[in-house]
Amino acid sequence: MMSEKELVRFQIDGLEVEAEKGQMLLPVALEYGFEIPHLCYHEAVSPYGACRLCLVEVTKRGRTRMTTSCNYPVDAGIEVATATENVLRARRMMLELILARAPHSERILAMARSVGVEGTRFPIIEEAEDCILCGLCERVCREVVGANAITFVNRGDKREVTPPFWDPIACIACGACVYICPTDCIKMEERGDERTIVRWKRTLKMQPCKSCGKPFAPLFQLNWIIDQVQLPKDFFELCPVCRKQKK
Amino acid sequence: MKGEGMRVRGLDDLIKLREKGLKRLYPDKIKMTVEMATCGISAGAHHVYEAIKDRIRERKLDITLAKSGCIGFCQREPLVDVWIPGKPRIIYQEMTPEKGVELIDLIAKGDLQKEWGLCRTEEEVIFFEDEPRRYTIESGLEGREDISLYQDVEFYKKQFKIALRNCGYIDPESIDEYTARGGYFTLHKVLHEMKSDEIINEVKRSGLRGRGGAGFLTGRKWESCQKARGDRKYVVCNADEGDPGAYMDRSVLEGDPHSVLEGMIIGAYAIGAHEGYIYVRNEYPLAVKNIGVAIKQAEEKGLLGKDILGSGFDFTVTINKGGGAFVAGESTALMASIEGYVAEPRAKHIHTVESGLWDRPTNLNNVETWANVPVIIEKGADWFSKIGTEGSKGTKIFSLVGKINNTGLIEVPMGMTLREIVYEIGGGIPDGKRFKAVQTGGPSGGCIPEALLDLPVDFDALTEAGSMMGSGGMIVMDESTCMVDVAKYFTDFLKDESCGKCTSCRDGTLRMYEILDRITKGEGKEGDIELLEEIGWATTEASLCALGGTAANPVLSTIRYFRDEYEAHIRDKRCPAGVCPALITYTIDPEACIACGKCKKECPTKAITGKKKVPHEIDQAKCIKCGTCKEVCPVDAVKVK
User: What is the ipTM of this complex?
Assistant: First the structure.
């Protein structure tokens, strides 16, 4: 069924803008060139609203309130303010809190500096190992890859992201989590014919290319893909380079 | 099995059920009822019940023994209610198995036991009848006048029970007894005489606001859900009551589960839902059991299922047991949990009345709200809206706990002042101590000081004072309570129970806790109060759900009203209430000490020295500040500074 796309007009920092009704505010604002810091948002996955950095003030029917823009569906006539004093004040506190979890991340340090936060007054949480619990890795693994290899466990300050039951049995070492992590706290290493996703303690043997002999992807991953999309068993015999040459 | 028998097809059958219930409620022989809600059981009611049962059997007496829910006065449990035909009903307090046996023997002889009487009742208010139901009293009171009337007992005098109307009066496992007090007659009226809009209009006009905490207008919520597009809609009962020290919903489910069911069926009919869920925490085994029994009975009687009361309306209810996460009480987290996901709140830019459970229109209300519904429909919006204040109509149940003489579950008209609740219903502070604060609204409520005791309980007034109505927890604190320690306790709870999604809530509560912990250990520094205020503000403003939005209340309200206490901890390294171990010293007043040796004997670190007839002394290097010496001292010679 085709649904009619309804365009709505509203304001961001006084500028008249237009977007599809129900579209999330953050991507619209970014497209119009507004700079709103964000860490747990990525266009490839559904919005989550965890890092609380993309806070803005939205006035709707005369009522103003602070809300995250990544999961706020736009509507006609709303007035959005992206950098009020309250917004900046809250954002600074969020960055100070986040910084104490990821003090080694260059990206977080730069983002903090950009809003005037030079350091954090809070004790560093070393066990976090730079993870800010934004959940991008969990969403990309579940929504895009479909492997469901990692998940949130526990609640409150004991929350962490880990393979279910701390056993990385479902991880295909595809590296999507490595790619999407905003603090680079998930690392991938390749040694000989083995690939390791360090944070999840997952090491898989790689398949050598039938033509050039170089290991190019974990066998477990290739079989998983073959299984998922029902490809012929010999579909992944060649590495991407040799496959191109063959064509 | 109770409640067995034929299906109720219409009014005639309902009346027959009521007749059966009336015979059970007011039998023509002696009936003893032990109040067996969780509060009663924890005070030993089951031992009393067993003792009475054994004695009746031993003496082959023709006495009916029954169980009921809690009539509210938990402090005086176990309570035993004695019904003798032709006499006022008497409730006996602080019963023991021995007293139970003695009471039976006296009753069997036709004697009256007066000393243990809490109160007598000569009539019952039943909202579905025009006049109070008066007992036929045949041959005068015969000494029973010495036991105060229910309505003269200080604890009950100012109460007004709507949601708790049947608690303590009926056997919660008997659908007959529920109908005998008017139950399901309103449902019959609704299904046969009222249209959806009429019902919603009545609830709207009553001004009923959600009793779970947010205080949203119930009628408006129903209307939005009714109007929402979707062929399948749901109603949900939130019974995931998780506030420490609060047990309003537990008591209603334990004592009168059918009132909740009847409310839900009425709501479902008005909204156009055919499926309902009760989300109840599994830590409430008796509530889970009783609501389960009630659902089964209602199904057997045809009050749930297909073609309810011959009206053509279908509705089923399923129980969902919660796994112990406080945050699951948040409506969107609760719905995620029913769907089988982790209980984590989501943004409510699209309301749950439009897209809730399985993305379908869902109307969620809490236990107390649902229990109010049948009475509102029966008595009408005009009657209901006369009770309470301008912005908060009706009554509210509170669990009154902490440093208070009369601990218990109370239901009062909105607008009653905290002073009336604490000093009249609650009977004031024990041991002649001074009142210090009352915490309303559960863990993320705020602490209200003595200067604001004349504040009325009303959604808006409490919020304005930096606290909230919440679901109705009320914890009274006296002068021996340290407010920094209190803030630390609740912040600790909240940091553990935050779902951990939002930076602001997860790390905000964690950081506030760390600072409070330092302050209570004597490691506070200048600027800590301001930093707490800064984190508190950001936690409130930047969090997604109501848990985060109110998580800073304990900290912010104690700073607002007890800032000097924070300053004493930080600047003078002193805990004025004498609570924080790192900031106090125990000494023995040589003038007062009688050298009895008790403290010396009990001290776990052997820090106390002294001989017979020589005042004892505490070696500060060895003292771990456990307070045992102070507790055991018979002459109060141990001082805390």
Answer: 0.95
